Amino acid sequence: MLGGKMKGGETVGSSSSISPLVSFVLGAAMATVCILFVMSASPGRRLADISAWRSSAEDTTAPLHPQEVTADADAGDEQLVAAAAGNFTVVAAPAPAPVQAPASPYGDLEEVLQRAATADKTVIMTQINLAWTKPGSLLDLFFESFRLGEGGVSRLLDHLVIVTMDPAAYEQCQVVHRHCYFLRTTGVDYRSEKMFMSKDYLEMMWGRNKFQQTIVELGYNFLFTDVDVMWFRDPFRHISMGADIAISSDVFIGDPYSLGNFPNGGFLFVRSNNKTIEFYKSWQQGRWRFFGKHEQDVFNLIKHEQQAKLDIAIQFLDTTYISGFCQLSKDLNKICTLHANCCVGLGAKMHDLRGVLDVWRNYTAAPPDERRSGKFQWKLPGICIH
Ligand SMILES: *[C@@H]1O[C@H](CO)[C@@H](O)[C@H](O)[C@H]1NC(C)=O
Ligand SMILES: *[C@@H]1O[C@H](CO)[C@@H](O)[C@H](O)[C@H]1NC(C)=O
Ligand SMILES: *[C@@H]1O[C@H](CO)[C@@H](O)[C@H](O)[C@H]1NC(C)=O
Asked: Partner of 213 at 20 to 30 A CA spacing, among 123, 207, 280, 342?
């Protein structure tokens, strides 16, 4: 899930034992199930939401109930609908009690977004599972970077929505943060770390992509960040006002609007507008057009045609500011964020990010002239960082 492990010698998970057709059908079914189950499930009130949603869903599907349709095959349409809706006399009675809250298939998503968003409806999002929430794990390092960061970057935590993928991570999130959301999905066990390009990995990455589509469709801009990104300074000032999409680069070739850059979806800003909504639709379709590829590859495969079709402005972020282990920014005076990309394995990421934070701590404690002198450098090499 820690996106952008596009380089290096990863293990490629194989699903070759499953025929393409079967896995296509399974995948399609799973995508449908995911859409249906994107809802929050905090204890208490949440259960009410879910059952309200369930019952309204049952109402609308009732007319299709085979038995009732057959039994009333000769009846007029009105009768058919009434009978199908349950008991004729009950339906004829006063109007059915309205569902209390407007039931949403996304549970409390809109509530959480509203609370967390800036005045211009922007949220920062990250997505985690249990393996990353344990004390001393990646989530801790992530938070620590905000606290050690400069220029008020820690205030951005007010706008961070943490999307959790399993109930335990959701509970853990609520202990440490105000804006937590439980994205309920099925078919994948999200608790553990996923092998790059395994079937679960693909499912998870495409699920994440679908969820991002939902956010822009709800009218929110988002800056998605992997949790293995350290935030040292406010990155928003490097996102152009004119960009519909701004994406970090594994390798930045010097021109922010050249499609020749190598994107990394682990740090991705998307402005909500109808160009980006269309873009996400094509992106999701790309899952089936280029079956078996992950969303980052598909982004690369569709970027040219989509840019031509939608006139969408895609900005690739300069690794001097929005950096990663793939192309490391060595200027601590400029760096805003640092992603443990080009690095496989939770242990390796943690090791190197701890080293990064140690150096950053010393850097921020030093007087301005020493900082400017450039004497502070990352401790190299680490396991991945070099
Ligand atoms: C309709 O209502 C009657 C009386 O309340 C009940 O006996 C019958 O089982 C109900 N039928 C259905 C299909 O719910
Ligand atoms: C795009 O959005 C604008 C409003 O922001 C709307 O007027 C326009 O019809 C939309 N275009 C399409 C193609 O949906
Ligand atoms: C940070 O500073 C302390 C004190 O000067 C030093 O002992 C330590 O090695 C430094 N750590 C790093 C990672 O540079």
From this structure: 342
